[in-house]
Design a protein that fits this description.
seven-stranded parallel beta sheet; Rossmann fold; elongated; five-stranded parallel beta sheet
């Protein structure tokens, strides 16, 4: 089995050395070059033809975002951003994901508090996954424009009268690698009166609040990071906080609320899509609609099956639009998905299911 070829791009000689040692320790990876700036990186790409690039953000002569945008237009390939977990670093990482980066990892340092071994495992895992991923081409408009305009006319509309008759309907979404852009595409297509939504996207706690704030500026529906006990109501999407808790749906009389619980990670993730989906199956049954999208592994597949078994409508993203066809594949293989749709059709499908429920 051939090894995946990796190019490291970072202006820090120390970081380049650490990344080289980490990536070279895995027999499935081969570091074919290390560049201190984008101009050097481009010359290596043309000669060494790497399978995946790790890319720093702040570099001399040309920053990582500008290089990423040019690279994805001229020579699309899997890119993993190397970012700090600061607020500025999170915002820059989201812009990079919009431009087509597959994933991101924490910038390594000698005295990293999380522990070198744990960080090394994460870096190796994400780079190996990225080498197999399908890079997503950047959106036509520049992701660096801010603020983002509201979405164009939504792909569907939910009748307000139907929502008034059945505010119990809950939409549940789950995603991982490649999911930030997948979730953005679904949510920007939602009208302001869409059913209440609960969402799990695998990401660190530093990222989820900023991700929710970023989506809130783009969408007609309101988006925010969930708090314990918050009601699930039409027009609002609640994103599970990253890192410390799972998010579950709980029925309280005729209403639904979210609960944040500090139980152990599931599938090495917290929050876990399975935990959310299983609670939706248990607490909402046929009053829920679920969708699983791009991501590595199988988190969410069993939970989506539980939702379908409880009478909920369920959707999986089609392989053709997934950055990583892992979680949706697992769901399809265990017959958890009632329908399989490309990303651009998922919002319309969810709204159609919700409207049918409201008129039923």
């Amino acid at each position: 089995m051939s090894r995946s070829r990796v190019l490291i791009v970072d202006d820090s000689a120390l970081v380049r050395q650490i990344l080289r040692e980490i990536l070279s320790s895995d027999s499935a990876l081969e570091v074919v070059g290390a560049a201190s700036d984008p101009f050097h990186a481009w010359s290596i790409i043309q000669t060494a033809n790497p399978d995946v690039v790790t890319l720093d953000v702040e570099m001399p002569r040309m920053d990582g975002l500008e290089f990423l945008e040019r690279l994805m237009r001229a020579h699309p390939m899997p890119v993993v951003m190397v970012s700090s977990l600061t607020e500025r670093g999170c915002e820059t990482t989201f812009k990079a994901l919009e431009l087509g980066a597959v994933d991101y990892v924490t910038k390594p340092t000698v005295d990293i508090g999380r522990g070198v071994e744990a960080l090394a495992r994460e870096i190796v895992e994400k780079v190996k996954m990225a080498a197999r991923a399908r890079p997503r081409r950047p959106r036509r408009e520049s992701a660096t424009r801010s603020p983002m305009p509201l979405a164009a006319t939504p792909v569907g509309s939910v009748n307000r009268g139907a929502l008034a008759r059945s505010t119990e309907i809950v939409m549940a979404l789950g995603a991982s690698t490649g999911g930030t852009e997948a979730i953005r595409e679904v949510l920007t297509a939602m009208p302001a009166d869409a059913p209440g939504m609960v969402i799990v996207q695998h990401m660190p706690e530093n990222f989820t609040r900023l991700f929710a704030e970023r989506l809130d500026k783009m969408c007609a529906i309101r988006v925010r990071e969930a708090t314990d006990g918050e009601r699930v109501i039409p027009g609002i999407a609640l994103l599970a906080p990253g890192g410390a808790t799972h998010m579950q749906l709980q029925r309280c009389g005729g209403q639904y609320v979210v609960r944040l619980v500090s139980t152990p990670p599931r599938h090495h993730h917290r929050p876990s899509v399975d935990v959310l989906f299983e609670s939706c199956a248990d607490q909402a049954g046929r009053n829920a609609v679920g969708a699983i999208m791009t991501g590595m592994g199988d988190d969410g597949a069993r939970g989506l099956l539980a939702m379908r078994s409880a009478g909920a409508h369920t959707v999986a993203e089609h392989e053709s639009t997934c950055v990583v066809y892992g979680m949706p594949r697992a769901a399809v293989e265990m017959a958890a998905a009632e329908v399989v749709q490309p990303l651009h059709a998922i919002a319309e499908t969810l709204l159609r299911f919700a409207a049918a429920h409201g008129s039923g």
